[in-house]
Amino acid sequence: MVLFPFLGAFVLAATAVHVAGQQEGFLSIDCGLDARFSRRKDTYTNIAYISDSPYVDGGENHRVAADQESSTNDVSLLTLRSFPSGLRNCYTLPTESGAKYLVRMEFFHGRYDGKSSPLSLQFDLHLGTNYWDTVTLQDTTDDWWSEAIFVAWSSWVPVCLLNTGTGTPFVNTVELRPLGASLYPDVTIDESISMYRRANMGGNFTLFPDDPYDRYWGSETSSSWANLSTKKHIQQDDNSVAVPVLVLQAAVSTINNVIVLNVGTWRVYKRSFEFKFFLHFTDIQNTQLRRFDLYVNDEQWLQTYSPPYLDISYIYSSAWNKTTDGKYNITLAASPTSVLLPMINAYEVYNNIPHDTPRTSTKDFDTMMAIKLEYGVKKNWMGDPCFPAKYRWNGVNCSDLTNNITRIISLDLSNSNLTGLVSDNFTLLTELQLLDLSRNNLNGPIPYSLCKRNARSLVVRYESEEDMCKKQ
Ligand SMILES: *[C@@H]1O[C@H](CO)[C@@H](O)[C@H](O)[C@H]1NC(C)=O
Ligand SMILES: *[C@@H]1O[C@H](CO)[C@@H](O)[C@H](O)[C@H]1NC(C)=O
Ligand SMILES: *[C@@H]1O[C@H](CO)[C@@H](O)[C@H](O)[C@H]1NC(C)=O
Ligand SMILES: *[C@@H]1O[C@H](CO)[C@@H](O)[C@H](O)[C@H]1NC(C)=O
Ligand SMILES: *[C@@H]1O[C@H](CO)[C@@H](O)[C@H](O)[C@H]1NC(C)=O
Ligand SMILES: *[C@@H]1O[C@H](CO)[C@@H](O)[C@H](O)[C@H]1NC(C)=O
Ligand SMILES: *[C@@H]1O[C@H](CO)[C@@H](O)[C@H](O)[C@H]1NC(C)=O
Ligand SMILES: *[C@@H]1O[C@H](CO)[C@@H](O)[C@H](O)[C@H]1NC(C)=O
Hints:
This is Malectin-like domain-containing protein. The chain is mostly beta strands.
């Protein structure tokens, strides 16, 4: 690894081990799919898609209009779930706490509601409690996807759709892909990133199985770019980005001896004007010297760079790039000594997902999910139990914050159709001061450990008998 601290860029050379193709741990949800058709396989990727009913409580199932089906060749997009009621609706995805994931939600309207184009629809997505993306659909045939990379902070991760008053939110697929811990090393429990663009320059649209992590690599071509490609093997042994070989085998350069390659210009209107760039290079020609300088907004980022021959290398922003207007462009300019023109194989651009909203403690959230599942609680129990405050779960009250984390201090489950025994799971809410279980069909004793753990302060209401713990 060669470090250019003065430029704020890292150039990473080949070092580590090969990442084998895998599909283990993929969760692929086809929203709105009738449970009878669950485990339907995608014809291209051969990934099995399942019904969304175990992961979501609200919403309605729909199917795109028959005459719109030809607009997509992706069968999982043909059904969807829409959320006409409730300001926030969430899918709650099972995760392994501390593991790194890619989550993707895909949106194709297809006139499911019988309305005609043009469409002007916007709604927000939250990852846990934090703003992730704004879905913007101009037309019923638009295909939008949002992707985030994050480290799971609990055994469940909610992804939420928020109605912002500009149309009914809906979603066609929700996909969760485990990434190795070594991928995207900047992503930690305190930093999540949202994909802005991921491009396969001069190549075709690429996904699983060519990308074992099922990232989408969009095709970018232009009549002012020369298309380069090779069938030669490319050393793919840096597992911090793991760009698919197929993506690296294509590249673009300039035509007509133009010495400056405009990789792209971007403008974000999102709440965060912060960007991170990953530029992927491998020289597939190597006939003569190729050397170029790299600029972000006309400011030199890296000087006299030579991509290695048939070996991957990448350059990325080690810190967030910020501009006040959200405008960026990247250009590559041939160095005076260079014989060959600048080239690039692929790039990725990400936005910061600001972690600016507190959340419920991991243990309390996991426990609340266990209680919800154990009793089949039917309430607005979606997303984080405490935050954002206006979506707090019914019957839940939360403590003041410590390090932006809250604890659950009261739980009112009275008159909630609970049946069975009083669960030991309640004992795991160790900060609880009030637990109201009255007016249900519960039986059996209050677990001894429940009173013991919280003996000083916990009040349990159970079948109209007040303060059960103190009586025992
Ligand atoms: C893109 O796909 C077309 C059609 O399958 C194929 O002919 C072409 O070689 C592909 N291009 C690259 C760069 O792989
Ligand atoms: C490169 O390929 C794209 C897509 O096939 C095409 O539109 C473009 O004109 C090609 N570039 C050149 C210089 O031929
Ligand atoms: C790139 O950004 C700089 C600074 O904002 C601007 O002067 C320049 O015109 C831009 N170039 C392109 C190709 O958009
Ligand atoms: C982008 O970020 C790098 C650090 O990663 C910094 O060196 C560079 O000046 C930034 N450029 C702009 C235009 O913000
Ligand atoms: C809590 O969140 C706010 C907003 O993101 C942040 O400024 C602050 O540093 C955080 N506090 C702690 C203790 O993490
Ligand atoms: C907690 O609830 C889960 C169901 O979500 C159940 O499998 C488990 O046995 C319960 N644990 C305790 C300690 O009651
Ligand atoms: C929630 O707890 C706070 C104290 O933290 C209290 O002031 C408030 O009244 C409680 N709200 C409900 C609905 O119990
Ligand atoms: C309890 O269940 C009954 C019958 O299934 C239902 O009618 C009622 O609305 C439920 N009450 C609550 C509070 O969920």
